[in-house]
């Protein structure tokens, strides 16, 4: 064989330029040998005219879109999102379900981890996605702006890592939301002023579209076009403000494979239940031969409380590409108050609990808490008429403590050791005045107001039993914990029995979540490891209950290693 011919400088330059162009066109290639790559997004918060139900209004959006843009990343990637506020409202963005390990300044809840971004201000959210993959979402975390400021956050597995199920033919994101003809900010402002319940939404939506069951909405219908004999991965997100939803597809079953960006043992069903703040991935296997029909996808609320609610149904249409769609079939949904259907569904959820996706539920716990979550009331101010129960104002609480919105961000107050007058560290670990929580309510249902936190040493193992109450009506409460995933180790009806109920806890394959529904007239038990230093909000994801004060905060202290400490805030952190 002859000796190799050396390449000319021109050829070397051409090869180098081609390689560089490949890295620009395919940024994943550049990061293949690293933990991940950096992905940049820009969110322009702007007012946009949107028309639904023959009603046009100006609403706060991201980049003029409703719902907002899809954010995509891989496990291990860094996200850098520049948010520019062009509207009169203050704004903050929460990356719902992201652990925010050592990046608590990017979590987003206004007055908890940051002051809001004011008009004409900018803030850059900068965080790395560590050990997570699946469907999450982002949303505004101030007042009721979440109604229109939300969008999917899709985290794909690392490159060359597959799903624990066969690769689907196609993936589709479906955001479940609510439409208000009025400005949602005006709705909650009026409710807080009068002390009564807020006006409800006019419609539910699939990806911002109400569908044909609503007036003037046939042309605003979400349609999912499918091919026969294929499997589709549907990524469902409940971004509605105040409603848990049943979801079903006519004449089709589907397989649940993931909730809150954690894989679960697959099970087949024709019904799912999803609370605000939750996500669910389902595999839909289409029929082998295209039928001459289309099929409604329906969602409508699950509700057991005493107040008013939006008792309407959103419809999308599943269409086979080659069918004539002469008939449209409609699924049957459970009754509005079908608590048994809800518990039957949630109890089927189990973690994979295998070598690739192990369960790390604490087998023993150092700290145990019993939190009552529910409604209450507060006195009507002097010289004012209030529209809440018996002339009072509606309120909501954890352990009968209703938390007002702080005047400055708790995380800054904690980090710079300026907590005086901002918060106290004496949140009770159990109700100060026990009562028959799901029985006859006590005579005094007034809440106390205060900004109190629980302080946890780093890596404390924690168990929280969240107990629903019957005060002003038993209803479910979707509780969301920032900064952590937790394991749902038990749930039940009635009052929690500390002597007997823990014997039935599932410590083998409990489902892992970031948002869980506290059953109506019942309780749920969660466990987690407090391995993330910072200040972390836990609250009801019904925005009306959050507005009434159903929230509390955890402070997790720094550990000893550098990787166990919260770094200083970024220089552009908004000021109050």
Proportion of helical residues: under 10%
| Strand content bin | 35-45%
Largest β sheet strand count, sense and barrel closure: 6 strands, mixed
The oligomeric status of these chains comes to single chain
- The geometry reads as globular
User: Could you report the average pLDDT, rounded to the nearest whole number?
Assistant: 94
Tell me the total number of β-strands.
33
Structure annotation, total helices: 6
Query: Strand order of the main beta sheet, please?
Result: 10-9-12-17-14-15
Radius of gyration: 24 Å
Contiguous uncertain segments of 5+ residues: 1-34
Query: Could you give the distance between the termini?
Result: 75 Å
From the helix content, strand content and strand pairing, which structural class follows? mainly beta
């Amino acid at each position: 064989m002859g000796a190799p011919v050396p390449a000319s400088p021109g050829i070397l330059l051409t090869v180098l330029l081609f390689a560089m162009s490949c890295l620009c066109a395919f940024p994943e290639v550049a990061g293949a040998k690293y933990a991940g790559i950096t992905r940049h997004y820009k969110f322009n918060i702007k007012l946009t005219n949107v028309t639904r139900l023959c009603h046009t209004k100006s609403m706060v959006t991201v980049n003029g879109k409703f719902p907002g843009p899809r954010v995509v990343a891989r496990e291990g990637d860094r996200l850098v999102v520049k948010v520019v506020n062009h509207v009169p409202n203050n704004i903050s963005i929460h990356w719902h379900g992201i652990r925010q390990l050592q990046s608590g300044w990017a979590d987003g809840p206004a007055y908890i981890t940051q002051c809001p971004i004011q008009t004409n201000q900018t803030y850059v959210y900068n965080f790395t996605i560590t050990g997570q993959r699946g469907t999450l979402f982002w949303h505004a975390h101030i007042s009721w702006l979440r109604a229109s400021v939300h969008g999917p956050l899709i985290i794909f597995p690392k490159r060359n890592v597959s799903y624990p199920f066969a690769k689907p033919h196609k993936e589709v994101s479906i955001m479940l939301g609510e439409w208000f003809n009025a400005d949602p900010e005006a709705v909650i402002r009026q409710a807080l002023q009068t002390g009564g319940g807020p006006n409800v939404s006019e419609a539910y939506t699939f990806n911002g579209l109400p569908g044909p069951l609503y007036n003037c909405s046939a042309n605003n219908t979400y349609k999912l076009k499918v091919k026969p004999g294929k499997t589709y991965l549907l990524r469902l997100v409940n971004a509605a403000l105040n409603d848990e939803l049943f979801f079903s597809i006519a004449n089709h079953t589907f397989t649940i494979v993931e909730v809150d960006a954690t894989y679960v043992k697959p099970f087949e069903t024709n019904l799912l239940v999803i609370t605000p703040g939750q996500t669910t991935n389902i595999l839909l296997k289409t029929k082998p031969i295209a039928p001459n029909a289309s099929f409604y996808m329906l969602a409508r609320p699950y509700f057991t409380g005493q107040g008013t609610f939006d008792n309407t149904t959103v419809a999308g249409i599943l269409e086979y590409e080659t069918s004539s769609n002469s008939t449209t079939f409609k699924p049957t949904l459970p009754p509005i108050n079908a608590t048994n259907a809800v518990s039957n569904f949630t109890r089927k959820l189990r973690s994979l609990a295998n070598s690739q996706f192990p369960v790390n539920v604490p087998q023993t716990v150092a700290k145990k808490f019993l939190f009552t979550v529910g409604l209450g009331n507060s006195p009507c101010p002097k010289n004012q008429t209030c529209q809440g129960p018996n002339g009072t104002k509606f309120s909501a609480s954890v352990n009968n403590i209703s938390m007002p919105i702080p005047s400055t961000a708790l995380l800054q107050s904690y980090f710079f050791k300026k907590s005086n007058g901002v918060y106290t560290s004496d949140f009770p670990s159990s109700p100060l005045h026990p009562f028959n929580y799901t029985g006859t309510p006590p005579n005094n249902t007034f809440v106390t107001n205060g900004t109190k936190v629980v302080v946890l040493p780093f890596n404390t193992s924690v168990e929280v039993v969240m107990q629903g109450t019957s005060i002003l009506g038993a209803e479910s409460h979707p509780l969301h914990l920032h900064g952590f995933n937790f394991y749902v180790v038990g749930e039940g009806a009635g009052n929690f029995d500390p002597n007997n109920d823990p014997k039935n806890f599932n410590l083998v394959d409990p489902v892992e979540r970031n948002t869980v529904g506290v059953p109506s007239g019942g309780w749920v038990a969660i466990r987690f490891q407090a391995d993330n230093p910072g200040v972390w909000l836990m609250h009801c994801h019904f925005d009306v209950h959050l507005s009434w004060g159903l929230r509390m905060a955890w402070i997790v202290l720094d550990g000893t290693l550098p990787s166990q400490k919260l770094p200083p805030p970024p220089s552009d952190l908004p000021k109050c």
